[in-house]
Amino acid sequence: MAIEPGDVVILKSGGQPMTVVSVEDRDEIDCVWMGDDGHLCRESIPAAALIGVPSEEDEDEDEDEHEHKEEDEAEDEETGEDDEEEKSKDRGKTKRRVA
């Protein structure tokens, strides 16, 4: 995942979330955050020290994908379809006896 302005990141070692304000080059990322005293802090941080924090939209998409997967699995159970059965059927179709 490439870090872009507007992304929320944290230090890999922990800490509070920071907002990326600019990416001068891929090695240094300019971030801002609110300090404990309420002042706005700004620092250029090595990209290797940062990881992205999933946004609420990303988490919602992950939940939607998980729900769809569970629905598909439940549907397979209802119809009696099973991936292993399908694979064995497919294998049987492709086997040919060579004399």
Concise summary:
The protein has 99 residues and is of the alpha+beta class.
What would your notes on this structure say?
With 99 residues, this protein is an alpha+beta fold. The chain has a domain of 45 residues. 36% of the residues lie in helices and 33% in strands. The chain is built from 2 helices and 5 strands, in the order βββββαα. It has a 5-stranded antiparallel sheet with strand order 4-3-2-1-5, with no helix packed on it. It starts with 7 loop residues before the first strand and ends in a 5-residue tail after the last helix. The mean pLDDT is 79.
Q: Largest sheet, if any?
A: 5 strands, antiparallel
C-alpha Rg, in Å? Answer: 24 Å
- Helix proportion: 25-40%
User: Which range does the strand content fall in?
Assistant: 25-35%
**Uncertain ranges:** none
Spatial gap, N to C terminus: 54 Å
Compressed to H and E, one letter per element, the order equals: EEEEEHH
Q: Give the overall pLDDT as a whole number.
A: 79
Number of strand segments:
5
Q: Structural class given helices, strands, pairing?
A: alpha+beta
Q: What's the total helix number? A: 2
Task: Tell me the strand order in the biggest sheet.
Answer: 4-3-2-1-5
Note the overall shape. Answer: elongated
